[in-house]
Amino acid sequence: MAGHIEDIIFDEQDANLFLVDDPRLRADALKHSVLPRLRAVMNSAITLIRDIYEIEVLDDSIVSVFPNFREKRENDLEVKYESTFVGLGGQRKNKWPGFRRKDGKPVQILPFRFAFALTGNGLFTVLENGWLKGMKDECFEKILRFHMENEQKINPLCFESNMRPFAGWAEDIPILAPFRMQYQYRIKHKLFDNHFVGRPYGFPVANTKLDEVINNFICFFPVYDSYIQMAKGKEHRLELLLVKLNQWLQQDRHDNTSPSRSINPEQKQIHERAATLAESKTRVMPAIRWQVFQRDQWKCVSCGRGSHDGAILHVDHILPRSRGGLDTLDNLQTLCDICNIGKSNKDATNLRNKARSILG
Predict the structure, then answer these.
(1) How much is the mean pLDDT over the chain?
(2) 251 and 299: one domain?
(3) pLDDT greater than 70 at residue 356
(4) Do 221 and 310 share a structural domain?
(5) Are residues 230 and 352 both part of a single domain?
(6) Is residue 112 part of a domain?
(7) Is 272 part of any domain?
(8) How far apart, in whole angstroms, are the C-alpha atoms of residue 179 and residue 4?
(9) Using CA atoms, how far apart are residues 162 and 36, in angstroms rounded to an integer?
């Protein structure tokens, strides 16, 4: 897995977060705990896309988040959010000559997003399309016709990435209608919300599961890239990307099935570390994590870093379980990923008290 996400896990407490009644606590947890982890997952995917397709994603796209908590919008923290995502979308500073608004002006915001989404059901990939109003119908039709013309190429991508189109039905179209008929129906009735939704991976999501979600994103990326190329007024490069993806998949299959393949000591240490972190997180009592983060103001008690600094926060036992430490608030503290790695299970330092004494 590319990037430094070996110790990232989305667990049952993340699922329970969407059941929390306090809207501010739910919003703060999404802002300071969940979104930084999703950003790390996206960064890993972008790195793999560069390696596999030789594409610099951020040349044309930006990374967007939902909820997007703006500093001067406190009411954001009063909404009971049911989902969160980190996704790719077209850069707003660009002009997109391939698409036009109904008033004839060039489009600055594109009507599709490709994201990692998290709900109470798990982590999955999603390609949203058609949500933006104000574009000419011909622009949406261009995307639907792209799917009709390339159905035989896109269908294998759906299988490989566990993505499925959000199919609709009505009295004049069968539930099991072929995709081509579905798209023809959408064009005729101007139904442009052509979403693709991935298989949700239930909690906990870490290690192999997280690898699979990222691979799903990678495998469906050629569809998103085709949308981007059409928006730029260029021909899509679907066939070229499929060749590169196929080469990577074949090499990946070979590496994973080769009898001579072995895990080096560094990889073994990483996996053992991730397993230890996963166990420690899932065994902390439900809702305790959010109480610890809230008490510590959503910052590492050692270095003071928080989500604005790109820190991924962990709950640490001051007195380790191996030495009799309990899952109680007074024995738990907030540490960032860096400080947590530096603290061994033999270290019973209360960094909250240490920080107070230094500041005092």
Answers:
(1) 86
(2) no
(3) no
(4) no
(5) no
(6) yes
(7) no
(8) 39
(9) 25
